[in-house]
């Protein structure tokens, strides 16, 4: 079962259970999927594209929550974090800091990188290999740390 089918199924479940916040978050995902399918002209969306869309939505929620918290709007931040928790269920398990270090170190070794000049080369491969497993910012921070 693809992510689109899973989202559709979960929307029906949320409607029956009258879970408004969960339903709102899932509808946002479905809308993003539909927009992507319209843009590409496809009748369905592959799981890799779906994961990238969900990751983007999760990042947006995190950014919004931190902005609301900084602005003293805890009520809006809580809503964003709640929706975030409903979306994270669809993402693969995130790498721990130790696992991320090992993975990035392996990529540095594979690319032969030795300094910050090679960061672009490392980031290109790391982004491909670690998609969905770690946040892009966390990957970049780890690459900087290990190449410094």
From TrEMBL:
Pfam assignment, any one: YqeY
Give the domain of life. Bacteria
The record ties this protein, via InterPro entries, to: Asn/Gln_tRNA_amidoTrase-B-like (IPR003789), GatB_Yqey_C_2 (IPR023168), YqeY/Aim41 (IPR019004), YqeY/Aim41_N (IPR042184)
Give GO terms: molecular function aspect only: carbon-nitrogen ligase activity, with glutamine as amido-N-donor
Name the record gives this protein:
GatB/YqeY domain-containing protein
Gene source species: Labilibaculum euxinus
Q: What is the lineage of its organism?
A: Bacteria, Pseudomonadati, Bacteroidota, Bacteroidia, Marinilabiliales
